[in-house]
Design goal:
It contains seven helices and twelve strands. It has 199 residues and is an alpha/beta fold. α5 runs parallel beside α6.
Length: 199
Amino acid sequence: MLTLHTADASPEAAVVVDGAHIAAVGPCEELAAAHPDARLRRWPGVLTPGLLNPYGPELLEQAYHPDPREADRLGTEPLFGERARALLDAAPSARGASARRGVQRMLAHGTVAVAGELRSRAALDAVRRAGLALAGRPAALPGPPALSPVPLVLLPGLGAGKPARFAVFDVPDRDALVRDGASTCVVTVVGGRMVYRRA
């Protein structure tokens, strides 16, 4: 079944998804007329190709992502350094569980690809299960590891025949996305599936 995704602040950049790939890109009205049977998904904000997070190893192998049940004592943000290492080594399943939570938090920030050499099976499995693409790391890293790095790294443009991999951010334009960051994500699509949707 075809799905037409459009965002209120960027109706000229709507996409029609067919399975795991993009069937068409263009103005929402034109795509709706050309694909009248497509299911319509309308989102607030702007639709973009999605983000590359350049900190795969730092966020998925070296950081500890607290379980929501640990939030009262550990908080909700990734932990780094000695404290993270102690938590990752605390139980055999800790690394895999943390990596899975880390991937979910990346998806909630519009991430559709990660960069950096992942070496642990736990991190690689979490990335593969989510369908995130693996990409080359930029020559210069933007700053400290973060779920919403500054500056944000957008993937190349969307096009027919390409993988259906994109995100929508609840901002009025791309300048606002740069200013407000990836925590404004409304939905993330990977392989044609909505892998994150803000409640």
